[in-house]
Each structure stands twice: as structure tokens, then as C-alpha cells.
Predict the 3D structure of the following.
Amino acid sequence: MSMESLFISHFGPIEEINLTSLPKYTVFIGESGSGKSSVMKVLAMMRWLYKMNCVRTYLKISGMPVPFRLRLDTIMGYNGLKPYLKGNTEIEYRNGSFVIQIHNGKLVKSEGLVPLDELTLQKVAYISDKRVMIPDLAVGNISLRHNMFYLDETFLNFQKAVDSISVSEMNYLGVRLAVKKSSTGKKITVSALDKKAPFEDLPLTSASSGMQSSVALHFIINYFSKRFDIVEAMNSTILKYLAVSDNLSKFSATLDVGKFPRKCISLHIEEPELSLFPLNQWGLMKYLVQECASAANAKLGMTLATHSPYILTALNIMMLAKEASGKDAAEYDKLGLDIPFISKDEVGAWLIEAGRCYSLYNEELGMIDGTSLDRVSDDFENLILRLNDIIYG
């Protein structure tokens, strides 16, 4: 069961939403400009604030008198969310018994420290919808501008991933990625898995838009699933703080960082479906879930902001596959399917519309019900019928 919840009111396009749970696979879907990315960015920020409160707690119990302060104005200025803040904005994030609020333009948290039995090693990462620029950024064709916080973070995590991966197959796109050293740094090439296909060692910058938009996502989730050491990352954060603050002599660890009760990696992904055909979206979702399920060093979860109903369908199929296998494993195995399993309590999906959110999970059906999303198709079908009436009488 999720230990997290999030409440937002009067923030940017959001009138009021109340998410009483945030499961391992959380999806926000809605029209362009509906606020789904705003909700996800707030969630990523609040998770980061919780992470930093865990760091503060650890420093406090290790003898540090007054660890660093967290200033809302600085944080929201840096991540670009400050213009969305209103005089009556209210945000409340809960993780276990610890509460962080934004009230009257100020940051408010629970009194005292994060309880020791809830201390969490947390990594919060954001994968921007502007990631299609990353292949050109990687070879210096373009450069990052100021105020591109989310793309900058995506690019930094991409670079870390590329440093640790030499070859990776994107089976859902039928290609192999290779990272090679060159005189100007590392370059990524794309080769077809099918030897009869017409390309090999194609520069990533010359690949299709679907490949270019997916490669950062592909590398980053593999990095966090298989290669990222969350304990080492926490130790590095603490040592950097102690060195900068010149407080190393006052620090006396009373708890091994590796003994923190919880270890979590939270990925926040904008539009995973970018430039992908529906069948490729299905393949990508299988890959993402497989990487989350096989994470080596921490619980790895995803929050997605999407326009695509196919993302919801993919999650439904994975839930149904688990249920069918549990019902009759022998019959299920005869199908010869390669589908990762998801438990129903691991999934949550919300429609963001008119500043509010509506759960799409149907308890009776035991799956995500996207019927309300079909009204656009119904509108188009009605329009076609009316036009055909004019043409054919």
C-alpha cells in the first residue's frame, strides 16, 4: 500500500486535486494544457523536499547542530514553478507520518524529524518531454539555455547512464544502441537487429524521431534499475555537504546509511509515447515495467504524464496477465506471452480535466476504465456520419 498522498489547490491550472495514494505505477492523462505535467512536477518537488528532510534528519542524529535550510522561493525559482504559485495556493504532501505543506507562500513541515523507522534513501529523477533534443546536445550540435531545469536534469542523468552502458538493445524498436568513444567524446550509434535491414552504425542524430525521443528514457531507466547505487549517492551527498560547510569534525554517524528502512527511486516521465506508433508504445511500456520490477538496489517506481490511451491499455494488459496466470497458469503458459505482471494495487490512473482529477480505476472491473476518453472518437464518428449524410443523402 502506498504511504504517499498529495493535495494541491489553486496552483497554475489546477483548481483542486486530492490523490490519497500514489502507487508504484501512477499515470496522469489529459488534454494538452490540462495540468498533468504541473501535478507531476509538484509531486517530484515534494518528493525531493521529503528526501532532503531525510538527509537533514540523518545529519541531526549524527551530531550536526543546524543543517541546511530549505527555501521555497529559491527552489521554485530554480525549477520554474514559481509563476504558478498563487496567494491561496495550498499543497500538502504526506509520506508516512511526515507532512510537508506549502501554505501562504511558505514551506511548512511536520514538527521534529522524520521518524527513524521511516527514514528513506530517495532518488527523484525527471525525464522531460524535450528529451528529443538530447542526441544533438550529446554531440554539441546545440547547447542548453538558462531556465531549462527539467531538460538539464534529464541530460545529466542521460550522461551518467551513457558512462555506465556500452551496448543496449531496444527490442521494441528493433535496434541496438552502441556507445563508442570518439575524439570529441562519446557518440551513440544505432544498428538494426535484423541483419537484412538497411542500416548499421547510424549516428543517433540521424535516427528516427521515435528512436531519438526514446533513447534517453531507455538508458536512464536501465541505469537506475541496474547500475545506480543509492547508498553511494547518499554518502556522496553527505560528504559534499560536510566539506562545503566545514563541519566534518562535528559529524559522528550513529546509523549506517545502508541501514535506512526504505530505499526508493522515483522516475517522473513526460509523454513516454513521444513519436511512437501504438505497437511501439506497448513494447516500450513492457520494457519500462520490466526494468522497474527487476531493480537491484531500491524500489523503482514511475509516474507518467501522457496523452495516450495506449499507455493505459498496456497497464491493463499487464494486470490482466497476472490475474489470468494466477487463475490458470497452464492455460496462460500455452499462450506463450512475454508480458510482465503488475498487481492491481500497484497501479493508479487519473484524468486531469478542468483543474481537477478523476480516478479512472474501476474497482468493479479491476482495471483502468478509459471509456470517458473515447468521447473524442465518438465526436469524430458523429461528424463523419453528418458529412456522409450531406455527400450521399
About this structure: The chain is about 40% helix and 25% strand. Residues 4-129+228-392 form a domain with the Rossmann fold fold (CATH 3.40.50). The first strand starts at residue 4 and ends at 11. The chain has two domains: 4-129+228-392, 132-217.
